[in-house]
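#struct-help
A.M.: can someone run this one for me? Single chain, 187 residues.
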Amino acid sequence: NKAKNLSAEDVSVKAKQILGEHKSHESLNQARYKKYMAEGQAYLKQGRYYQAVNAYEQAAIFDSTQPDAPAGRCLALFCAGEYMSSALFLARAIEMSEEYARSKVDLASAMGGNDKLETRITDAEEWLERSCAPELEFLLAYMYYHSGRLEPATRAITTAAKEMPNSKAVKALKEVIEAAPKPAKQK
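D.P.: on it. Structure tokens below:
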């Protein structure tokens, strides 16, 4: 085996070639994470949803502690019409950081326009009618909440919480939605 014949100096040279301008593996991993996250966002806006899913999956390899990669996969899968998988990755993102449920997300911008967002929400609602899956209630609650539709978000998260009482992600999103300021009544 050729690797066994490398001197300590050769190994050091090889390591420097791999790291490039980065001083550490952590620095290299963060650079790769950012690269794949940027690719995922670009693919998502271009409507290349499965490439976006793959890019976010790659990003998670380089930093599995951040909720942004599973959240990106959630959005890409939502856009691709894969709602149950989307809900799974949304739950993962919120479980990684309950703060993610609270953070403001411009869904229309991330997905390449409000028309795409509304079309997908309508489609997910139709799937919910057929399946009655609480995961879809959870996913829709998130989408409604981040689209400024507090009333349907409250209804959806209430149903999800009844059906999925042990879900940490559902509980966290429910707290966020319940704490949201209620819009003033029109006179």
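A.M.: thanks! Residues 25-46 form the longest helix (22 residues).
D.P.: also worth noting: The two ends are 81 Å apart (CA to CA).
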